[in-house]
Every structure is written in C-alpha cells, then in structure tokens.
Design a protein that fits this description.
The protein is of the alpha/beta class and 257 residues long. 45% of the residues lie in helices and 18% in strands. The protein contains 10 helices and 8 strands. Helix 1 runs parallel beside helix 10 and helix 5 crosses helix 6. The chain binds cobalt (II) ion. The site of cobalt (II) ion has 3 residues, from loops.
C-alpha cells in the first residue's frame, strides 16, 4: 500500500487506557480504509516503559522513517490529541522535517480545532452525564501552559449557555484548576459531585489525580468538603460519538485538496 495514516497519540502504559486509544485508532482507520495505519506515541517516557515490557511503539519521526523506507508516497498524520497545544506544535514540526521524503504529507487536526468542535464535544459530554438533582458534574481536563488552554474556560461557557451550568470544567495542569471548581460548587450548594475525565484516556491523571485515594486527589478533597463523590473512570476515547468527531475531521481533511 502506498498511502499511510499515522495515528499519533501521547501514549499510555495503562492497559484500559490503551484500549481507549485503540478505539479511536480503529475509528480513524475506518475513515481512511485505503491507508495502512501506523501507530506512533509522542511520549518518550511511555515508549521507554513499553519497550522494557517488550513492545516497540514508534515515535512520529521513527514512523515517518519506517514509511519512507517502505517507499510510501502519501502520508496523513492524524493526532488523537485534544487541542492545538504544545504537543501538536511539536508534532507539526516533526512532520514538517520529513516533508521532503514523501510526494505528499499532511497533518490533520486534533479533536478541538474550532468553535464548532467545542460545541460538538460539549453536547456529547452533556449527553453522557445528565443533570441530577442536587448534583454537579466535574470534568477533569489536562490543561496546558499553551494558549490553547482557553478551550477549557470556553467549554465552561458553552455548558453554561447551553443550560448545563451544573457541569464544571477544571484542569490538572492549567486553568481553571480545582480551586475554581470548588468555589463554584460552593456557590451552587450541591451535595453530590460526579467526577469524569475530559480526556481521551482514563490514564494516570484520571486514576490518581482525579479519583485516586491519595490526600490530594480531587475525589479526596471534594469528599473532605462534604460532597458525596462518584467517578467515571473511562476516557472519552471509549465514547462512539467522540470517535465519530475524530473520524469526521479526518474524512473532511482527506477529501479536501
Ligand atoms: Co500530564
């Protein structure tokens, strides 16, 4: 096959989270049936841990080099990343560096690349977690030092304008953080909180920072605040509607010249 699709993810060492990445990969592959699918993970640390376990996963430059050696002419690089942040910039630079090795090389969009994408994701997530009396839904996003972090307060606004102010958006490494979420919960006077990852996979952050047993996890802190806390430990990659959003981007980009 002379055309390839490289599905690029941050990566994970958690087997259940790996299934979530693979579910998105399958949806992407189905949207590009005449392309050979190749997996790449951007995290060097994750690739090292997997290698110690006996599994080799390519970095993006390695995947591009393998395809060059096979004589692939047309490559589409599709990230499974959430937003156009630091990882996405890096991936574009890495793809750009290999451009001369192929007749054609394109880079697709992450899940959230437009206002329409944000609204579609908000609608999907709102449907997953219906409003409950006396309850709030707290979503944990990753967060970024990159300007693209604005997707989190933007999603918060979309939930509020869409009649779901009970859904609160926080991030582990960006803004808003848990402090802002706690302040809004206090104003809402709810008693029950449901935690869920606003991430592709329920990996280390969801299992430890969100719903872990440690003293700093969001679940522990919110329980100490007096809320009855439940949690979903599934990443959005498992959700068919989210897979469809990724696949729709890819289909659109593949038909555009
Ligand atoms: Co992180």
């Amino acid at each position: 096959m002379n055309q390839a699709l490289i599905c690029v993810s941050f990566g994970t060492t958690v087997p259940a989270a790996r299934q979530e990445i693979e579910a998105v990969e399958r949806a992407l592959s189905a949207a590009a049936p005449d392309r050979k699918m190749v997996r790449a993970f951007t995290s060097g640390m994750i690739r090292r841990i997997l290698k110690e376990r006996g599994e080799t996963v390519y970095s993006l430059p390695e995947a591009l080099e393998a395809l060059r050696q096979e004589g692939t002419e047309d490559v589409f690089v599709q990230p499974t990343h959430f937003l156009c942040g630091i990882e996405y910039d890096k991936l574009r630079a890495e793809a750009g560096a290999a451009r001369q090795n192929f007749a054609r090389l394109r880079v697709g969009r992450p899940l959230l690349a437009s206002t329409r994408d944000l609204r579609a994701l908000a609608e999907t997530v709102a449907a997953l977690y219906p409003a409950r009396q006396d309850g709030a839904v707290v979503l944990m996003g990753h967060g970024s030092a990159h300007f693209a972090n604005v997707v989190y307060p933007a999603l918060q606004t979309i939930f509020e304008l869409g009649g779901r102010p009970d859904i609160r958006v926080g991030t582990v490494e960006g803004w808003p953080a848990l402090a802002e979420v706690r302040r809004s919960l206090e104003q809402m006077k709810v008693r029950r909180v449901h935690l869920a990852p606003l991430m592709l996979v329920a990996g280390d952050h969801a299992r430890n920072d969100m719903a872990g047993e440690g003293p700093d996890s969001w679940q522990t802190v919110l329980e100490q605040d007096g809320y009855a806390v439940t949690a979903t430990l599934e990443g959005l990659g498992r959700c068919e509607a989210v897979q469809a959003l990724y696949a729709a981007h890819l289909r659109e980009d593949l038909t555009r010249d």
